[in-house]
Design a protein that fits this description.
Length: 165
């Protein structure tokens, strides 16, 4: 079986990357998360420049594999992944649309405060389920180091809060 392989364009690469879900939060793609910074294509060789969202996030190697597999599937001869830290990833890059998706998924989206502020100011995170603010932090780390565990006293549900960086 011969697969029809057309030339790879930068747009095509963005399109398929935009379908790769974040390993932690499957409702959001790695492009929406702002991890993919740039894409270069030359003679069907693809270079993808990424900025890791959170240092040491265990999901890193998972989506690197995903990127390579996905691009190889659309006919990339060689896939190179470069990492840039030129601009540190920040949750400010998340669009309102993405924050809405997080919330619908049951994760409180990052608010415009740094984690330090949240830690030391008694700031309350809004519950993604009932929008109540009678909440408390139960653990600094949730299922991944990127999230903290909170509990809503209003609707009595635990929820995760996507920390700011
Ligand atoms: Zn609640």
């Amino acid at each position: 079986m011969v697969k029809e392989v057309s030339d790879i364009t930068v747009q095509k690469v963005w399109d398929v990357l935009n379908q790769i879900p974040d390993p932690d939060i499957p409702v959001i793609s790695i492009v929406e998360l702002g991890i993919v910074r740039n894409v270069a294509v030359k003679d069907n060789n693809v270079e993808v420049i990424i900025t890791p969202s959170y240092s040491g996030c265990p999901a890193m190697h998972v989506f690197k594999e995903d990127i390579i597999t996905t691009l190889t599937n659309i006919g990339a001869k060689k896939v190179e992944i470069s990492i840039t830290h030129s601009l540190a990833w920040t949750t400010d890059w998340l669009s309102n649309n993405v924050k809405e998706k997080l919330k619908n998924y049951g994760i409180a989206p990052p608010e415009q405060n740094s984690e330090t502020e949240v830690l030391f100011s008694n700031k309350k995170i809004t519950c993604p389920f009932c929008s109540g603010t009678y909440t408390k932090r139960t653990s600094q780390f949730g299922s991944t180091p990127c999230k903290a565990l909170w509990y809503c006293n209003n609707c009595q549900q635990p929820f995760e809060y996507f920390k700011c960086y």
